[in-house]
Amino acid sequence: MNITGQIKRFIFKVNRFVDDRVISNIILYFRTRVTFFDKFIKVIEYHRGLYRYPNQMLGRKMDINFDKTDVLVFAAHPDDDILGIGTVLYRHRLKDEKIKVVFVTNGTAGNGESWYRRKDKAKNRANLRYHEGSLALAQIGVSKKDIYCLGLPDGGTQRYMKQMAVDITMLINKLNPNRVYVHGIEGGHIDHDMTSFAVKSTCHKLGYFNVFEYTQYYPAQPIGTEKVKFLSSTIDKTGVEMIEISEDERKIKRKMLSFHKSQGVDKYYRQGETIRKAELKNSDIELYRYCPISSSCLEPLVQDFQMNIFFSELTVLESENHSV
Ligand SMILES: [Zn+2]
């Protein structure tokens, strides 16, 4: 390619990046303040055939095998599992425990959310993120058949809370794991907070209590922090465990992160790991306190989870959608 062609290509790339960043920021501004905005996006997603639960969800991989499950991990995006608890998972594998990992979103956002990206591009991105996630987990012997994706839009979990709760109900009921890991609510990423709230609230309703949460990043704790701590909480939490990561374990964590090439996260290999038993009740208090969505937008979501009728609807939906 001649020099003019190279310059044109460079300008195109910069333009594209700026456009996506500008659009993403405008979307973020509105979707955290105006309830109607997310409903509007959901209509677009439906009409474009991107997200129609449960059979048409971009990047969904739910070919569940119901064999023994010691550890079930919920990660909003492929790579959160490694950044948040890569070493914890490695130690479970050393004890020959069986791990299953659920990516809640398809990881398609990057430089633009899937609802306004070209469908084929979003699809390729979803495939790539899952592929990278499975290569990383293969390093500690978690096979592809044990890695699922709910196929929710990256950056748009708040639009599909009910669907997420249906899937969580099915996974907990069918896999009956010994232990569950999920994000804490900490205001680092809306998808992390939504995943945490949905998992904790659903497990509470199901009477499943062995849930642990992990911290990752939030405004006062940038990604890559070595000694990660939970935010102080209004809810009494005990049994915080900071993982001392050995140099050998660090190498494994770094190697796993290196497979997430599209994210460039291997530079955060020093990210620490801290876990604690999750308090399942009243996680709405944390949501209102830390999640960067306005209270008026959060209220309808929280109310859904507080209504018993919501959970009886889930049971019906679950038996219709996942009968095996
Ligand atoms: Zn994430």
Automatic annotation (TrEMBL):
GO molecular function, one term: hydrolase activity, acting on carbon-nitrogen (but not peptide) bonds, in linear amides
Domain of life: Bacteria
Cofactors demanded by this protein: Zn(2+)
Name listed for the protein in its UniProt record: PIG-L family deacetylase
Organism from which the protein derives: Robertmurraya kyonggiensis
